[in-house]
Amino acid sequence: MRSTCSDISLKSFGKLFTAGKGKWFCELSKLLSTGNHKLPRTTAIFNMASAHDCPSYKLGLCRAFTKDGQHVCYAKKSETSARPYVQPYREKQMRFWHSCTAEEFASQFLLINALKELPWNALRLNESGDFWGQGCVDKADKIACILGRYGIKVYCYTSRSDLDYSNVRHLIISGSGFEKEGVTNVFLMVEDTKVDRPKGYGVCPMDCKVCSRCQVRGNKTVVKRH
Q1: Measured between alpha carbons, how far is 207 from 211 in angstroms, rounded to an integer?
Q2: Long-range CB contacts for residues 136-142, cutoff 8 Å, separation at least 24
Q3: Are 38 and 209 in contact (CB under 8 A)?
C-alpha cells in the first residue's frame, strides 16, 4: 500500500537521510550519554572537558572544596583506574566540541533525537569540565537557541565567574556560588543545607527525576557538599 503524507514523520525522514545507518550516521551519537543515577533518561549529557582537564580548577575558580581545603569534585571521582573508560570518553567529547560549530552540533543532535524511541527534552552541558573561554559560552548559547525551537532546554553549571554572560539569551546557567548578568541561577555547595542555607534559597533534592530547578530561570539553590 502506498504511503500518504500523514504517514511521513521526522523519524522516517531521518532513516532515509542516513541511508539506514540511523543515529550512528552522526559522530555526535557516540558522544552523548542519556541520564545517570540522578538525571532522567529524557536528558542528554555532553561534556566540554574531563574533570582532570577542567579549566575552572586550573584557574583556581572551582568551588568544590571543603572548609579544610579538600577538593571534592564529584566528576573527578568517576575518572579513576576503576573506571578507565570515563576520562578518555570525556576527552573525545572535548575534541569534538573544539572541532564543531554550533550549527553542526545542533543539527547532529536533532537528527539523533528524531531517531530515538524516547526523545530527549533537555541537554545538560558539563557534567564534568567547564567553559574553556568566551567562545564556548557563545557557542553553547547558539546551540541552546537552535534546540530551544524544538522544545529542548539546554542548561549547565559553571564556576567561570571571569567570563561575560551578558549576551546569553537562551542557555540556562547556574553560577557556582556567584551571581552575574546573564547567569540566571545560583547553585551553592554547603556543608549543611539546614544551617548554611541563605534566605531565599531552595534545597537540591539531588534527584533530577523529581526536580527541575536548574532548568528554570531565577532559582537559587543549595546542595550538600558531596
Answers
A1: 7
A2: 136/48, 136/97, 137/163, 137/164, 137/165, 137/168, 137/171, 138/167, 139/101, 139/102, 139/105, 140/102, 140/171, 141/167, 141/168, 141/169, 141/170, 141/171, 142/102, 142/103, 142/106, 142/170
A3: yes
Phi-psi map region of 80: left, alpha, beta (phi>0 left; psi -120 to 50 alpha)? beta
60 Cβ contact list (under 8 Å, min separation 6): none
Distance separating alpha carbons of residues 89 and 47, to the nearest angstrom: 9
Nearest to 181 by CA among 197, 195, 205, 161: 161
Sheet with 153-158, strands from edge to edge, namely: 33-34, 43-46, 122-125, 153-158, 172-176, 185-190, 220-224, 202-203
> Any idea what DSSP says for residue 89?
H
At 126, the amino acid letter reads: N
N- to C-terminal Cα distance for the chain?
59
Q: Note the pTM of the prediction, 2 decimals.
A: 0.89
* Per-residue pLDDT reduced to its tens digit, 163-200: 999 999 999 999 999 999 999 999 988 888 888 899 99
Helix (H) or strand (E) holding 224: strand 220-224
